Amino acid sequence: MKSILRYFLAIFLIGLGIMLVLTNLGMVNFDFYTVWGYIYPIFFLVLGVKWVIDYFNREEGSWIFGSFLIIFGGLLLLDRLELIVFSFGDVINLWPLLIIYAGFLLIGKKRTFVHGSSGNEKKNKKQRDSYFSFGNQEFNHQNWKVEPMNLSQMAGDFYFDFTKAFIPDKEIPISIQSLAGDVNIVMPENIDFRVKASVKAGEVYVAGQTVEGINRSLQYETNNYDTAVRKIDFQIHLKAGSIRIDYV
Predict the structure, then answer these.
(1) 172 contacts 118 by C-beta, under 8 angstroms
(2) pLDDT band at 113 (very low <50, low <70, confident <90, very high)
(3) Alpha helices, DSSP H, located in the chain
(4) pLDDT of residue 32
(5) Rg (CA), the chain
(6) Helix (H, G, I), strand (E, B), or coil: what is residue 192?
(7) What is the pLDDT of residues 164-201, one digit of tens each?
(8) Which residues are CB-contacts of 114 (< 8 A; sequence separation ≥ 6)?
(9) How far apart are CA 234 and CA 245, in angstroms?
């Protein structure tokens, strides 16, 4: 959140300075409304470029949200330059971009996840669920067996009730990815776990610890995780939504 505010403040000061220089040269008539009309499209553009660059540098960026902000900010800026007609409310007309993004996701290469296992070995597992899928997934029936999972979808909620589960005596990796949705997990007090959770926009709550806002992440590990026989390793990443892990 602090980095976003820093970018916004920097762009605001740059835009303000440029407008004041042009006003002193008699090229424009300065007023705050005019300045703001140029500043926030530029902010969207810069933030979008940053997210795209971060994605290709593997720094937790997003090419989907980044490219959308570039397109949206660019159209707003072209409107301010009186080259086209486009207002903030016209964002709804960009819905065909969802079809384009869906196409890229279908032909794109699936990511793999690397999880730690007992000892020094590591396992690479491919995603079992399509990223181009929707709906809620619930794991809460009595005595359901906990197994390694790689869950990924466009939108939908996930609900896990580990108080009803059969958990084998080993470390079990569970990875969850979604563009939009909520993840709710209920853990019994006698099961150790660790989690690495992040949201582009939203909230993360884990056993009393909370972070919220833009580009937020939280890591948590129970005290006896390293020596525990039964334990779960969560990797949860959402673009928008909330992550909550509670003890009962």
Answers:
(1) no
(2) very low
(3) 2-24, 32-56, 63-80, 96-107
(4) 65
(5) 22
(6) strand
(7) 999 999 999 999 998 778 899 999 999 999 999 998 88
(8) 122, 123, 124
(9) 10
Q: Cβ(199)–Cβ(205) under 8 Å?
A: no
Answer yes or no: is pLDDT of 29 > 70: no
Residue with tokens 């899928």: 133
Q: How distant, in Å, are the alpha carbons of 10, 15, 191, 215, 216 from that of 3?
A: 10, 18, 36, 9, 11
Share of residues in the chain with pLDDT > 90 (%): 32
Q: Which amino acid is at 184?
A: N
pTM: 0.52
Closest CA to 197 of 230, 213, 220, 179: 220
Which amino acid is located at 247 in the chain?
Y
Q: At what angle do helices 96-107 and 63-80 cross, to 10 degrees?
A: 150
The length of the chain in residues reads: 248
CA end-to-end span of the chain, whole Å? 31
> Which residues make beta-bridge pairs with 245?
185, 206
The burial class, CB within 10 Å (0-12 / 13-18 / 19+), for 66 is buried
| Whole-number Å distance between alpha carbons of 219 and 175 | 14
Is the separation of the CB atoms in 203 and 212 below 8 Å?
A: yes
Query: Which stretch of DSSP H or E encloses residue 120?
Result: none
